[in-house]
Design a protein that fits this description.
Length: 95
């Protein structure tokens, strides 16, 4: 995530992602994908978004629609798609 503000909460990020999914795919895709921010490191501005196999492409496609979080201009950049939380955490530690 690229932002000029460091105090963005994971809940605000999750709500913005859900708004983006809802905007792109509607309520049906929001219910199917059910995106959640399960880890966020405010120091490195990196996090993990959890979703299911059905909706992961919709979540990735909706990230450009997240223009701001709590009024702060933000750019969400997907780094890697993995199948496990353990692998995702190791990727964040390695960066």
């Amino acid at each position: 995530m690229i932002s000029n503000k460091q105090d963005i909460s994971p809940q605000a990020i999750e709500e913005s992602i859900k708004d983006g999914v809802s905007y792109l795919g509607g309520k049906m895709w929001l219910d199917l994908s059910s995106p959640h921010v399960i880890f966020f490191d405010p120091h490195n501005m990196m996090g993990i978004i959890s979703t299911n196999r059905i909706g992961y492409k919709m979540v990735i496609a909706s990230l450009p629609f997240v223009k701001s979080i709590n009024g702060v201009e933000t750019l969400l950049i997907p780094y890697k798609t993995t199948g496990s939380l353990k692998k995702a955490k190791s990727l964040i530690r390695s960066r």
